[in-house]
Input
Amino acid sequence: MSDSLTVDSPTLLSGLSYLFDCKGKIFLFCLLLALIKFSSFSVTKMSRRYDSRTTIFSPEGRLYQVEYAMEAIGNAGSAIGILSKDGVVLVGEKKVTSKLLQTSTSTEKMYKIDDHVACAVAGIMSDANILINTARIQAQRYTFAYQEPMPVEQLVQSLCDTKQGYTQFGGLRPFGVSFLFAGWDKNYGFQLYMSDPSGNYSGWKAGAIGANNQAAQSMLKQDYKDEITREEAVQLALKVLSKTMDSTSLTSEKLELAEVFLSPSGNVKYQVCSPDVLSKLLVKFGVTQPAAETS
Output
């Protein structure tokens, strides 16, 4: 019986070495998992370090707070601007939050900056009000100093310089708003500019900001043509907005339409379309069905 329980030395040694090899592999595997988890935690921790400050670049060269401001604009009502040969058309989507809300007589998306410049807004409206007032003051100061209207691009650049400063100095956050500027001056005629929270601006023939702006931009790229008239620009803007808005039905209560054009006397005119006229335009261009007459 004692002979049956004996184990020779080579067998015992091979068994122990196999056991230690398994434990070593398990140990190495656990060590590898721990390193991976620690590295992912450190990467997350590193990103949070660059995430909380406006003035610090990430290792990839990004300013996260500026990108977050652009995300805030992506949740706002969209706005479309189209440059035509005889004017500039701005169309914006109004977000109707509640039926109990008392609508104001003033516009929500369109603002007049000077007699020759207007803008459409997408983003945080409290931020937009500050920048619009700043732009109005700058335009009036220029007119007071030089006795002529401020050039459109110079006004846009001046406002974008203010926006850029809020991405560079500590203790500030970027403005969460984008603009479409429409205007006319004697140097370049009708112009359309787009600006974002980073302070960048650029001239466009047709542009979109706000929710679903990528889809609207691709549609504008396909359908826009040079030498488009103001009426055709209104039709195109309403068509694009009807296909990119979140709501199923397009009505005058959910839209705002403004135009910048030259009057017969040669003066620049900014005109906001009334709800009645806008309803007729929606029916005329086939964007919505006419309301049924009540007997």
Summary: The chain has eight helices and ten strands. The beta strands are 79-84, 87-93, 110-114, 117-123, 177-185, 189-195, 201-203, 206-209, 255-262, 268-272. Confidence is low (pLDDT under 50) at residues 1-7.
